[in-house]
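User: quick one - fold this with adenine bound?
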Amino acid sequence: MMRIDVISAVPDSLVSPLNTSIIKRAQERELVEIFVHNLRDYAYDKHKQIDDKPFGGGPGMLLKPEPFFECIEKFLSERKYDHVIFPSPGGKFYDQKTANKFSLKKKIMIIAGHYKGIDDRVRQKFATDEISIGRYVLTGGEIAALVIIDSVVRLIPGVLNDSESALNDSLMDGDIIEAPYYTRPAEYKNLKVPEVLLSGHEKKIKDWKEEQSKLLTDKWKKINNLE
Ligand code: ADE
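Assistant: Sure. C-alpha cells for the protein plus adenine:
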C-alpha cells in the first residue's frame, strides 16, 4: 500500500477533498493511506507558535523552521521516503509524466508551506522535489498538494474501476486530447449528439473518435503554444 504524509499549517483544508469520491474509495480499498498532519502539533513552545516575523523585514509572517524539522525528522526516522515534495511556484512544472513516476513509489511526503511563508531552510534540508502546478500563485501549498495526490492516487492499480480506466486518458500516452463524450438524450434543447455515435457502426465510430482526438490535440497545442 502506498503511504502519503502531508504536513500543513491548515490541515482542515485537506481533509474534505481527501475523503470524497475516488480518493476516499482508494483509502477504503486500502490501496493508499493518506495522513494529514497539523504543523501546530509539532510546535513545542508553550504558545504553540508556528510563525514569526521575517529577518530583513517585509510584510507578513513566516512559518518557523523548528516545527517542520521536528515533524519531518520524526517521520524520516520512522520510514524511508521515496520523495519529499515541496510545492512552490519556483518548482519544476508538474505533468502527467511526473504523476506516473510518483504513482510507482511507496512513501511520499508533501510539505505544504507557503511561498514566502516558510523558512527556506526547511526546503533546503528536506525537499527532494520542488513542484509548481502552474504559472500562478496560490495562498499555500495545500491545493497543489491535493492536485498531486489526486493525480497520483488515481494511477494506482485498482483505484479506478474498468469503466473509469486511466489507460486511454487524455495526456496519458504523451500529449493526446480525447474525443468528446455524450450520453442520453440524443437531442436536448435542440443540441444534437453527433450522428455517427448513434449509428452503431463500430469502425466509423472508431475513425470519428480518432479524427476528433487529432483535431482537439492540434487545437490544444495551438492555443497553448506547444511545438
Ligand atoms: N504554492 C503557491 N503557488 C504554487 C504553485 N503555483 N504551485 C505549487 N505550489 C504553490
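One thing worth noting: The first helix runs from residue 12 to 18.
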